[in-house]
Amino acid sequence: MRIAICDDDQREQEQLEQALRGWDPTRSEEKYYDGAALLEAAARQPCFDIVFLDIYMPGENGIDIAKSLREISPETGIAFVTTSREHAVDAFSLYALHYLVKPVTTEGVVETFRRLTELRAKQRKKISFAVGSDRHTVYLDQVCMLENDDHGVNVSLADGRRLKVWTSFTEMEQKLDGSFLKINRGIIVNMDYIVHMGTSTCSLRDGSRLPIAVRRSAAIRAAYDDYVFDQLSRRKDMGGRP
């Protein structure tokens, strides 16, 4: 298992190391003091299984580093380590395993690895559709957005691909689960990829700004808020932290 710690403070790195030793004294970890070094190492194979990432570092924001890490290694588990809880919602949007408030304890580390094991064991739902003469199968959680387009549907994926599926919008909608939200007559988004829900537009991680149906704006925003709080409540630990 490849484990990394990224924290600019050596003393706090050592505290986290002690907590890791309490979980499993046979494990070793790689240590980095800035995001650039971590991301460079993340590009090497095999990828990190898990990264314990400090949010507050000089001149750097751990949330931004995590976004870059997701692009390099989407399967890597991320546990944020911080002195504040103010970025908990941002951490949720990046599928963070845990949000650990310093000083990190062995109990927090144990819970983090339990979540990693649970995540890997979980069956990821797939979706299949025809694109021309080819048939594509992708993980549903990698679908960012669907747009109705001239008797077909444009499917945008997390890796940047955009596929044109020749089927009805209604048929595609029936293949989705509760993480998807119709924000306009011809637009459905995966709520896990939303970074900001406004009154008239919805912003996604890739920079897309999408119009929200004016008459349904309040209901759409309420549905998104309910989804976020439901997900956060599922991820909170015994102490009530997200």
Offer a few descriptive terms.
alpha/beta, Rossmann fold, OB fold (Dihydrolipoamide Acetyltransferase, E2P), 2 domains, five-stranded antiparallel sheet, 7 helices, 31% strand
Structure overview:
This protein is of the alpha/beta class and 242 residues long. The chain has two domains: 3-122, Rossmann fold, CATH 3.40.50.2300; 126-220, Beta Barrel (OB fold (Dihydrolipoamide Acetyltransferase, E2P)), CATH 2.40.50. It contains seven helices and 17 strands. It has helices spanning 10-23, 35-42, 62-72, 88-93, 106-121, 169-173, 217-235, and strands at 3-6, 30-32, 50-54, 56-57, 60-61, 77-82, 98-101, 126-131, 134-139, 143-149, 152-157, 162-165, 180-184, 187-190, 194-197, 201-204, 209-211. A hairpin with a 2-residue loop joins strand 8 and strand 9. Helix 1 packs across helix 5. The protein is elongated.
- Helix count equals 7
Give the total of beta strands: 17
Bin the strand percentage. Answer: 25-35%
Radius of gyration: 19 Å
Whole-Å distance between the termini?
25 Å
- Under CATH, the topology of the largest domain can be stated as Rossmann fold
Mean pLDDT: 87
CATH architecture of the largest domain: 3-Layer(aba) Sandwich
Question: Could you state the CATH homologous superfamily of the largest domain?
Answer: Response regulator
Major sheet description:
5 strands, parallel
Q: Given the C-alpha coordinates, what overall shape results? A: elongated
H-E string: EHEHEEEHEHEHEEEEEHEEEEEH
CATH class of the largest domain: Alpha Beta
Query: How many separate domains make up the residues?
Result: 2
- In which order are the strands of the major sheet placed? 2-1-3-6-7
Portion in helices: 25-40%
